[in-house]
Amino acid sequence: MSHFYLERRSTPGIASRFEDMAFHLQLRYSLGTTVVVVKRPKVYVSMLAKAWSNVDRQLQREFASRLNLARGPYDREDERMERIVFAAAETTKAGAVPERGAVIFVAPDTLTGLPASYMTLYIVDEPSPAERRVLEERIMSHGLIVEYVSA
Fold first, then answer.
1. Per-residue pLDDT tens over the stretch 64-109
2. 122 close to 146: Cβ distance less than 8 angstroms
3. What is the rounded average pLDDT of the residues 23-27?
4. Which of 45, 58, 59, 93 has the most Cβ atoms closer than 10 angstroms to its Cβ?
5. Helix (H), strand (E) at residue 53
6. pTM assigned to the model
7. How far apart are CA 77 and CA 52, in angstroms?
């Protein structure tokens, strides 16, 4: 069993969860594949992609307000943010999702299309105890599990 960290985050609604996740994901997506456990993966892919683009626009506005010399390193980071892939696991072909910069959405009842390993796990809808064990077994050593709880 691998050692992982657990964080519980409280948000008032589902839309604010994905906004919070988009901000939190900025720090985590470059570490490796991310898995999001939600009841309706296909619907929530678009919700997080939209929240991600809103965060991206916010960062672009912030970076544009700085001096050109200070923006240099952030331009490269911004290009990496644009290459992130959001995918519902059941609709993704095997091998189509890159190793880095991928966010895979799986349903808590089936876990179909779950990657062999991942660095970050977001749990929006709680899976059964047996499926929870499968999720914890596949997380990489020193990975992070983020649980969202109702406020």
1. 776 555 555 555 555 555 567 888 876 655 555 555 568 888 888 8
2. yes
3. 84
4. 45
5. helix 41-64
6. 0.81
7. 14
Record the tokens describing residue 21, joined without a space.
């996740």
Give buried/exposed letters for 118-151 (b at 16+ CB in 10 A, else e): bbbbbbbeebeeebeeebeebbbeebbbbebeee
- Residue whose structure tokens are 């914890």: 136
Report helix, strand or coil for 122. strand
- CATH architecture, domain 4-150: 3-Layer(aba) Sandwich (3.40)
Token code pair at residue 13: 């609604």
CB 35 within 8 A of CB 65: no
CA dist 25 and 34 (Å) reads 9
Q: Is 93 strand, coil or helix?
A: coil
Three-state SS at 103? strand
| pLDDT tens string 104-139 | 888 888 787 788 889 999 999 999 999 999 999 999
Rounded to 10 degrees, the C-alpha dihedral 132/135/136/139 comes to -170
